[in-house]
Design a protein that fits this description.
58% helix, 4 helices, mainly alpha
């Protein structure tokens, strides 16, 4: 039995910005700073690091 947890309106807007993102917002989500890199460096292999950075955003 399928379960729907989004309204039709939520589903239609899923994956879209409500408004144009600002430059600082884009930079925060699409660029890594030194603190991000330090945290990522603690992960074991390259494949772990990539998965971690995607998950942690």
């Amino acid at each position: 039995m399928p379960v729907e947890f989004l309204t039709d309106e939520q589903a239609a807007s899923y994956g879209k910005f409500n408004e144009e993102p600002t430059r600082p917002e884009l930079e925060r989500f699409f660029f890594l700073d030194d603190e991000d890199r330090k945290l990522i460096a603690k992960r074991r292999g390259d494949h772990n690091r990539l998965g971690f950075v995607i998950w942690s955003r």
